[in-house]
Write a structure and sequence with these properties.
With about 100 residues, this protein is of the alpha+beta class. Helix content is about 25%, strand content about 15%. The chain is built from two helices and four strands; from the N terminus they run ββββαα. The strands form two sheets. The protein has a two-stranded antiparallel ribbon with strand order 1-2. Strands 3-4 form a two-stranded antiparallel ribbon.
């Protein structure tokens, strides 16, 4: 049921490490699909996207897309277009109001 890994320590005792949560779903960032532990600003996001969103809102930054405003935002390419990344943050439900 779970993707468990059994390892042996120096004492010969075995321990099990689950690679998925109890419900079988990995927790992924709604913006870039990186690993996400909890919700930030209204959406499940990774630390990178949380920080990006916070800085963008605090600075009131205005970004420009050099592409077609439909850039790929994933773990590997999330830093390539700040405009599209911020738009995706908004689209997945991150809110500007609240504690920053």
């Amino acid at each position: 049921m779970f993707n468990d890994r059994i390892t042996s320590g120096p004492s010969g005792l075995q321990s099990t490490t689950a690679s998925s949560d109890p419900f079988g779903e990995d927790k992924l960032c709604a913006v870039c699909s990186d690993r996400a532990v909890c919700q930030h600003y209204g959406a499940r996001t990774c630390e990178g996207c949380k920080g990006f969103f916070k800085r963008t809102v605090q600075k009131k930054a205005q970004y420009v897309c050099t592409g077609n405003k439909n850039c790929t935002i994933d773990k590997r390419f999330r830093s390539r277009c700040q405009y599209c990344r911020f738009q995706k943050c908004i689209a997945v439900g991150m809110v500007k109001e609240g504690k920053l």
